[in-house]
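Researcher: Good morning. I'm working through a list of sequences from a screen, and I'd like to move beyond sequence-only analysis. For each chain I'm collecting a predicted structure so we can compare shapes side by side. This is the next one on the list. No need for commentary yet; just the structure.
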Amino acid sequence: MPTPQAQTPSQRPSEYQRNAFAPAILAAIVCLAGIALIDHEYYFEVRYIITILAVIIGWFALQARQWWWVPAMLAIAVLWNPLYLFEFEGPQWAGAHVTVAGVFLAAGILIKTPRKPVAGRSGE
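Model: Good morning. Structure tokens for this chain:
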């Protein structure tokens, strides 16, 4: 049986997990791609995707007890809501897309929860 070797810091699992990171990256990509579709018929679907991902990231923020992200995600979900349309257009709306992409990325990086120890793993 092989002897356990000491783990270097790069081999140890992280103490935190970032559940909102993947949805935040996807939301930022959709926001930036959505700029090109603002006057297109597919922009309606872009609004759906941004709204749904904002709600998902807001939920992860609540789970991580980082409630200060919830109002930002709620505002994004309301402004990009496809059911009750706010008819924004022009360069300010394109700039809002870029700003919101940055907010999504910041939220994805900063929203983190402590990892729970895995049962049955001792000595690590």
